[in-house]
Amino acid sequence: MTPHPKIGAIVETYLSVADAEAPGLVEGLYLEGSAALGDYQPETSDVDFVAVTTEPPAPGVLERIHTRLGAHPFQGIYLTWDDLGHDPAELGERPQAEGSRLNRRGEPNPVTWHTLARHGLTCRGPKPEELEIWNDPAVLAAWIDGNLGRYWRRLVTRASHLVSPWGLTCLGGYGTVWVVTGVSRLHYTLATGEIASKTAAALHALETFPERWHRVVNEALRLRRDDSAQPSLAGLVSGLAEHFGTPRRSLYGSPFERRRDVLEFADQVITAGHRLYQARGD
C-alpha cells in the first residue's frame, strides 16, 4: 500500500522494469523518507526506497534496470536480507540509485535502518516488524552528530559565500527548505531518538527555538506546503519572484534577508545539536 497515486505509479513502473530485467531479484521493496513519514509532496519529493535481494546483484543488472527506469524521482539503496541485521558501518559500500543513475559505491547510514524499522512502507516482501532490522540508538546519535559537522557545517560555511553554488541556492526556496528543515530533523533525532519528516522537524523547531527564528522556520513550512521549491534555475527564479510579486507571498521582503536568517538559524541549530549529543554522555 502506498500513500499517494504518484508513488504507486512510480513503484509499479520500477517493479515491472526490475522483474522484466532480472526476474526474482527484488524480493523486498520498502519505502522510507517522506512517503513513509506522511510528508510526501508530489511536485518536490523524491520517492525513497530500500530494495532487498538474497545475494548482491550481479554487475550490470542494476545499471540496466535504472537506465530503463529513466528520470523518475526514485532513489534508494540495494541491500540483502542479511544486511538488514547489521550495523551499516560494518557493511562497506552498497549500490545506491537516483533515477537512472547508479552509484555502486554508496555509503549506507543508520537513518535508513531506523526509518525502515519504525516507519517503512511495504511494497513487496514481509513487513518490517516481521524482520530483524538492526537498531542502535547510540550509534544513530553518533552518526547524526557527525553529520552535523561533516555535511551541514561545511554546507553552511560554503553557502556563506554568496558567489558559490550553495550561496546562490540559499537565495531561493529550495535552499531555504533544505537547510532549515535539514538541520531541524537532525536536532529532533538527537532530542527524541525518533526520525522526523521535514514538516514535523520544522514544527519541532518552532517549539524548541526562540521566537527570533520563527519567521524563517515558518517560511520553510510555507514553501514546503506550497510544494513548489525546486532545485533548478527555474525554481530559483520563481522563488526570488515571491519577494516582489503582488501580493507578496514570502514572509521576507528580500531574498538576501531570508538567506541571512537561513544560514544563521542553521548555525544555531548545529551548535545546539552538538550540545545535545555531548549531554547524552554515550
Would you kindly provide a written description of the structure presented here, covering whatever features stand out?
It is a single chain. With 282 residues, the chain is an alpha+beta fold. It folds into 2 domains: 5-130, 2-Layer Sandwich (Beta Polymerase, domain 2); 137-280. It has helices spanning 5-21, 33-37, 61-69, 110-119, 137-159, 165-169, 173-192, 198-208, 214-226, 233-241, 255-280; strands at 28-32, 47-53, 74-80, 94-98, 101-106, 121-124. Strands 5-4-3-2-1-6 form a 6-stranded mixed beta sheet, sandwiched between helices. It is globular and about 55 Å long.
Mean of the pLDDT scores? 93
- Helical content band: 40-55%
Count of all domains: 2
Question: How is the main sheet built?
Answer: 6 strands, mixed
Distance between the first and last residues' Cα: 38 Å
Unreliable stretches, pLDDT < 50, 5 or more residues?
none
Q: Give the strand order of the largest sheet, numbering strands 1, 2, ... along the chain.
A: 5-4-3-2-1-6
Return the structural class.
alpha+beta
- Note the overall shape: globular
Q: Beta fraction of the residues? A: 5-15%
Rg computed from alpha carbons, rounded to a whole number of angstroms: 19 Å
Please provide the ordered H/E string of secondary-structure elements: HEHEHEEEHEHHHHHHH
